[in-house]
Each structure stands twice: as structure tokens, then as C-alpha cells.
Amino acid sequence: MTAIDPTGQVADWWATDISNIAPGVIELRGNAIAELLRERGFTEVIWLLTSGGFPTPGQRRLLEAALVASVDHGPQAPSIASARMAATCGVGLNNAIANGVNVLGDVHGGAGQQCVELLNAIVAEGADSEEALRAVTRRVVTQWQQERSRFLPGFGHRFHPVDPRREPILDLLHEARAAGDIAGRHVDAGLAVEAVLNEGRSRPVPINVDGVTAMIYGELGVPPELARGLFVLGRSVGILAHAWEQTQQGGRIKGPVPPSILPTYTGARA
Ligand SMILES: CC(C)(COP(=O)(O)OP(=O)(O)OC[C@H]1O[C@@H](n2cnc3c(N)ncnc32)[C@H](O)[C@@H]1OP(=O)(O)O)[C@@H](O)C(=O)NCCC(=O)NCCS
User: Closest Cα to atom 9, ligand 1: which residue?
Assistant: First the structure.
């Protein structure tokens, strides 16, 4: 409250629990920036700002793995390709990054949000045996496919028969559970969905990066929408690196394919 804001209404307009900024002061969640700079890493500060506390070493390890897993998938990924195309249009790195981030949605890169929802729905049923978990999972999966989509979020991949991020993340999750860092209920739920989805299938549809990172976010208690935000944060690193590389390589108005290849015209003469 000040003389020009006697009721504090103006100061409260952007009231925040995150940062306290005043002349000569920068505090994040009550921690002086000098302490954070000396003692903490970027992953810990991401957790501090988004969740309000410091992660345990086990939580930090898992969050870091989720961020690293989502960092890049090369120029065949629309988020990377569209950032690289933008970088050849003379718009600057900030626009190129925004372009890449803007295509991260329910189908590309953003399925983790729905996958956390799916796993939360299974975990909420509190199944207390493997058989009960399988039955609950069947019911939740059927309901999801009837009401939302036959494509379960966090499963399948356009060209990886098995997503190379699946095994290493599952290993970390199993280690974290053995160390008592996580309860493991979202891990069990994810593996149960994979088993149910693949019953009777000759070509399996395994968990993808969005699925294994959703297991991490679920175990860490991250809300679904925030899980997508964290994926975007990780992928932004790859988007930036590719936009910067493209900027250095040059190239002007690069389209999605070389100009010698023309899209097939399927229309008739009007
Ligand atoms: C990523 C994705 C678009 C790849 O699809 P695709 O390679 O074109 O797979 P197809 O559409 O050819 O599907 C092949 C088969 O697997 C099934 N399938 C693939 N992904 C599936 C999923 N997530 N849930 C249920 N079934 C799935 C299809 O129904 C199809 O079955 P059919 O042969 O009996 O018809 C698809 O798996 C998907 O939408 N996944 C969910 C969204 C997601 O997690 N996206 C992040 C990807 S990293």
C-alpha cells in the first residue's frame, strides 16, 4: 500500500506467490537470487517456480529425464520443421521459436497432458491387485475410446516401432520406485494400459515419449495442463537449436520440401 494506492488494489492486480521484485531485490519463492545462483541448477529452479518447493534429488532426476526426453526429434517433427522454415523467412529467433511451439498439440508433443489425465483416472480407482488394475484399466480405456478418441494418448509412434525413450525412462522410474522416491502407481497404470491396448494385436502399439513422461509427471503430482507446459519447455531447447542452426546455414523461404518436388494437384477444372 502506498499513497497513490491506499487500498493496495493496484498492487494486488498482479499479486503473485512466485517472485518478489523490488529495487535491489530479486526473490523467487522467497529465495534470494544470489542463493539460487550459488546453490541450485536450472531443473531445480523450474520445479521451484512451477510447484512452489525444491525437488528431492529423486524428483529432480525424474523431472530432468522428462525434459531431456522431449528436447528434440529432428526436422521431421513438425515443431522443429516449422521453426526452421520460419527461420528462413526473416522473422528472427523469437518468432521461429513461437512457430515451433505453436504446433505442439494433442497429436504432436502435447499428448502427455491427456495421458496424465488417463493415468490419473486409473490410479483414482485405487485397484489393490494386478487383476483389479487390469479390470479397471480395461474399463477406463473403453470409456476413453468411446467418449474421447480411439487413439490413446501417449501410445504409438509414427515411425519408431518402439520409442527409444521408453526403456531408459522406465528404468529410471523403476529405480526411483525401489529407492522410495515415487509410489509407482502411475507406472503400473501406464504399463497396464499398454498391456490392455496390445491384447490380441500382432503389431504392438507401445508407450511413446508422451506416455513415459506422463508417468513421470503423474508420479510427481504434476497437473495435466502443466505437464504439457513442461514438455513445451523441454522441446523449446531443440526448437531454439534448430532455428539457430538454420539461421547460420542461411537459406531463404525454405518450403517443406525442395522446390523441385511439387504437391500433387487433385482438383478438377472448375
Ligand atoms: C502417433 C500416431 C499419430 C501414430 O499413428 P500411426 O503411425 O499413423 O498409426 P496408425 O494410424 O497407422 O495405426 C496403426 C494401428 O495402431 C493403432 N494405434 C496406433 N496408435 C494408437 C493409439 N495411441 N491408441 C490406440 N491404437 C493405436 C491404430 O488404431 C492402428 O490399428 P489398426 O491397424 O488395427 O487399424 C498415433 O499413434 C497416435 O495418435 N497416438 C496418440 C497420440 C500421441 O501419443 N502422440 C504423440 C506421438 S510421439
Answer: 158
Of 6, 25, 54, the residue at which a domain comes to its end is: 54
How far away, in angstroms, is 109 Cα from ligand 1 center? 14
Domain of 39 in residue numbering reads as 15-54
CB 114 within 8 A of CB 153: yes
The verdict on residue 145 lying in a domain is yes
Longest CA pairwise span in the chain (Å): 73
What does the pLDDT look like over 169-195, one tens digit per residue? Answer: 999 999 999 999 999 999 999 999 999
Is 107 found in the same domain as 236?
yes
Give pLDDT tens digits for 68-115.
999 999 999 999 999 999 999 999 999 999 999 999 998 888 899 999
Spatial separation of the C-alpha atoms in residues 240 and 248, rounded to whole Å: 12
> Residues enclosing ligand 1, CB less than 6 A?
107, 111, 150-158, 197, 205, 208-210
Rounded CA gap, 196 and 142, in Å?
Answer: 10
CATH of the domain at 165: 1.10.230.10
